[in-house]
Amino acid sequence: MRYESYTPEQQRHLVSVEGGQWAFVPPPPPDYLDLSIEAVLELSGADRAIGALDGFGSWMPNPYLLIQPFLRREAVLSSRIEGTQASLSDLALFEASAPPKGGLPADVVEVANYVQALDFALSPTRELPISLRLFQRLHEILMTGVRGEDQRPGEFREIQNYIGRQGTPIQQASYIPPPPREMRRALEALEVWTHRPTALPPLVKLAITHYQFEAIHPFRDGNGRVGRLLIALLLVERKLISQPLLYLSAFFGAHRDDYYGGLAGVSETGDWDRWIRFFLRGVAEQAGDAIERARRLVALRNDFHGRLQAARASSLPLKLVDQLFISPVITVTQAQGVLGVTYRAAAMNVQKLVDAGIVRELGVGQRPRPYYARDILNLLQAELPGAERTDAPRQVTLDL
Questions:
Q1: Does the pLDDT at position 397 exceed 50?
Q2: CATH no. for residue 332?
Q3: Does the residue 10 lie in any domain?
Q4: Higher pLDDT, 280 or 389
Q5: From edge to edge, which strands make up the β-sheet containing 370-372?
Q6: Is the pLDDT of residue 387 over 50?
Q7: Which of 44, 183, 275, 325 has the fewest other C-beta atoms within 10 Å?
Q8: Structural domain of 375
Q9: Is the pLDDT of residue 392 over 70?
Q10: Interior CA angle at 246 toward 377 and 225, to 5°?
Q11: Pairing status of strand 329-331 against strand 14-17
Q12: Is 17 helix (H, G, I), strand (E, B) or coil?
């Protein structure tokens, strides 16, 4: 992290730390910004796109069938930015089946933790308000039982951390966040600011919040995942959208250089406009993507229902179809729980899905035997950064 990279105005926020290095202490977030015409146009487009997505979600008779697959897609994408390789297929298989011999793949556990953290954050029964305590609780859920667990899940750091390539010393850091004492002050200022009314448009305030959290970097590890999770939470909490259908990790992952460059630009030169334009463009693009993906999911569900109705199936396999949209891998035991019937009856209804071409058996010798909905997986994984079209989840040997 080079002192010379910061403008004289921003150099006032640098403090000396170990090894003769400089750390950046972000000043309190602004209550007003003089945005460019380009940023105002991006804001207008983002507002329209969110309104269209919200209207689509409110039209759905059961938006839960969209919320769950979108939530899991976000868990995979946000974790992938941090280097995990788990796919939606892996997550679905994990959720449907018994733990494999030798333990679970670490990447899958990280993604599953992200799902739990999102579920907790977005739960209507959550008691914790937007606060530092909530940040800590989300971090605890995310980091328990995964790499970085030794970094004290749920606790703000008490040491100096930095961003750089793994294994490199602080002298080669690309960014050094505030020391622990200044970090705590910046966090407290952010907590107060998030609840204070300002003249800022809500989406602009959300963009500032995300930057501020990332610049403070309050945990030893897992800051990026918590910061992206907060975007989804605040979109709903601040009533910018009524259902949690909008996530930005796909956009951030596809434009990594612009993402990190926009964050760095605020710290180094105070360029809020560039970062906010990028953030708002992501909101508009991902809202549009969510609408198109949701339309295709609805059409696919209607197609599945039509196949079963043409075969004169009862209402029970229709329930299993809806379960597949929540998690596109299912076992007979899981189907038994969903339907509340005997194991034999559950097996017969799963077979009806097989006969209709809705699910396929995953592989020979797997216990419990999983079945997967290839069309749902392909639709959810389409155009994921670095992902390829898949016909089946990664093979895992499962315990009896």
A1: no
A2: 1.10.10.10
A3: yes
A4: 280
A5: 329-331, 370-372, 360-361
A6: no
A7: 44
A8: 299-381
A9: no
A10: 85
A11: unpaired
A12: strand
